[in-house]
Amino acid sequence: MNATTDTRPAVEIVRVRKDYGGAVGVADVSLNVGKGEFVTLLGPSGCGKSTLLGMIAGFVTPTAGKIVVDGIDLTEVEPYRRDIGMVFQSYALFPHMNVFDNVAFGLRMRKLPKAEIETEVRRAIDMMKLGGFEERRVRQLSGGQQQRVALARAIVIRPKVLLLDEPLSALDKNLRAQMQVELSDLHRKTGLTTIFVTHDQGEALSLSDRIVVMNRGEVQQVAAPIELYRTPANGFVASFIGEINALPAARYEVAGDEAGLVLPGIGRLAAARRPEWSFAHGSDVHAFLRPEQVHPVRAGGTAVNAVNGVVTAHIYQGSHTITRVQVEGIGALETRVTGSEIIGDHPVGTTITLALDVGQAVLLPAG
Ligand code: ADP
Ligand code: MG
Question: Which residue CA neighbors atom 22 of ligand 1 most closely?
Answer without folding.
Answer: 20
